[in-house]
Design brief:
The chain is of the alpha/beta class and 430 residues long. The chain contains 15 helices and 13 strands. The chain binds zinc ion.
Amino acid sequence: MDLSNSKIGLLTRTGNRATLPGLVNAHSHAFQRVIRGRTEYRTTNDKDSFWTWREMMYSAAARLTAEDIYDASRMAFLEMALSGITAVGEFHYLNHAPDGSPYDDPNLLAKQVVRAANDVGLRIALLRVAYARAGFEAEPNPRQARFIESDAERFLENVTQLRKDLAAEKAMAWVGVAPHSVRAVPLAYLKQIIAFADNEGLPVHMHVAEQAAEVSACINEYGRSPVALLSTEGLLSERFTAVHAIHVTPKVVRMLADARANVCACPTTERNLGDGIVPIDGYFKEGVRVSLGTDSQVQIDLLEDARELEYHLRLQKMQRAVLAEGVDAKSALAARLFECATVNGGKSINGAAATDETDEPADFFTVDLNDPSLAGAGEDDLLAHIVFSLSKTAVKDVVVGGKRIVEDGHHAQQEEIVERFKALQKKLWG
Ligand SMILES: [Zn+2]
C-alpha cells in the first residue's frame, strides 16, 4: 500500500489495513512518565488524593537534569507515536534548575522537550506555563521552585524568545501560553498574559476546576468560581482550552459554550487521581468542543481516553450509549468520540491536524484489521471496533508530515530510547 497516495478521510479501508487521521494529544506532562507505577500506594493514614500524589510528583520533578528531561520526554513521545498520536500539546512547567535559579537560557528545558518530540517525529505545541505562587494566601512551597516566574513581563520575554528560537531552528513546533491555574496565577498576571496571547493569536491552555478545593479557594479569593472569573473578566475565547473542567455547574458549562472555549478531558488520569467525572454530556449538549489528553502518562492510549468519556457516564448513570446523538447511525457515537481524539485536539493546540480541508502534509496512522482486537469488524461498525476495542498492537504505520515515523509497529530509535529511559529510572529510583 502506497501511503503517500492515500486519501485521508475519517477512515479509509484497503485490504487488511484501515487508515485514520493522526491522533492529537492536547494535554501532556511528558516528564511525569518517570512516576508511572510508583505512586499506586497509600502515603497517609488519612485519604490519599490528588494532593498527596502531587507531592510525590514534585519530589521526582525536583531531581531531573536537563538531559533526564530529554530522556523521559522521548520515552513518553515514543509511546505516543506507537499508539497513533502525531501531535502533542505539552503543558510545560519545568523552567529552572532544581534550586530555582534560572538557566543561562531560560528556555533550556522547554527546548529539551521540543527536541525530544521532534527527534521522535511528533509535532509539538509547547504550552509554556506561567506559575507565580503556591496559591491564595499560601506559603511558598520549595518544591515548586523550578516552576516559579513571579513576574509577567519576564514570563512574556521568555515566551517571545522561545518563539523566535523555535522559528529560527525550523522546529516542528510552535508556542502557546499556559497560565497554570487560578490558584497559581493571580488575576492581574493572568490578564496580562492572556492579552498578549490574544494579540499574537496564540492558544491558551489552563487547568480549570480539576479539584473541588481549587474551586472553593477561587470563590474565597474572588467571590466567583474559576470559570465565572474567567468569563466575567473577558478572558475566555475560542483559543482558550479549559483542561479538566470537572467541577462545574450547568451555568458554567454555558459560559464556556457562549465564549466558544474548548475543554480538554483527561479521563485515564482523572480516574487515576480520583479527580471526578467530566460532564461530557453537558458539554456536548451545549456544543462545547472537547479534546483529550494523556496528562500524567499513567497510560498513553488516547482511544482509551476517548472511550472513558462514555464509560464514566455509563457507570454514573447506569445507562448505555449516553453520548450517542440519535438511534440511527451505528457509528455515530464512535465518530463523536473519535473527533475528540483528532480534529478537536488539533483545534485546541492550533496544530496541523490532518483533515480533508487542510493543505498541510498528512498526519495519519494505519491499523491492522487482522489484529485480534479488530478481527471480524464489518463496514458499518469498523470505527466502533477501533474506538471501543482497539489494542495498541493493531497500530502499524504512523506518518507525520509525509514522513513514516513508525513502520510495522516499530520506531527506528525504539531500543535506544528504552535503554536510556531504563538507565534514568535506575538512577532515580535505584
Ligand atoms: Zn495537567
